[in-house]
Amino acid sequence: MSDSSQFVSCPAANLKCSWTGPLNELDIHVQSCTLAILQPLFAPILQQYQDNQTEEYLRLKIEYEKLQQERDILKQNQQASEQIVQLFQNQAQKNQQLEREIERLQRLVIRLCTRPTNTSESPASSSQANNQNEDSTSIKRTLHEHDTQIKLLARRKIAVPGRNENLLFTPTNIRSF
What we know:
Blueprint: E1 7-9, E2 20-22, H1 26-32, H2 34-114, H3 123-155, E3 157-159, E4 166-168, H4 171-174
Antiparallel strand pairs: 1-2, 3-4
Helix pairs in contact: 2-3
């Protein structure tokens, strides 16, 4: 292939010179091409621009990665918060159930304690009285156990992640969740 048949671009093509032509005409074009003449002046400026663009790209890439990490942490915190709220709601329901059970047992104990006793009991009624006393004792024991559980729950403190203070877990403040 001869030099006259080989087509080349202007050395200032990076400055948007659109000339292409045979290699043997390149010198003539370069002498008359304003962009080719100014290219040595623009080269350091273009290099600095490219370096700045590269630095800016790397800075933005690092910032983007940090933002992605922060987003992931926020998602995890949100999921943890939702789980905590669910735990609080479940515990509130359990507390309400315990409170209802305690109220029921208290009513039953009061009813049993205020029931008049018959002094002239027959053997059958004596057996009934013994059963009622055993039931009453069992109910009192269950009532005491439930009361103890509620007191323990009321004194328990639960640390909430992401907060400096501890929340006191009581039936009153748990209902606010």
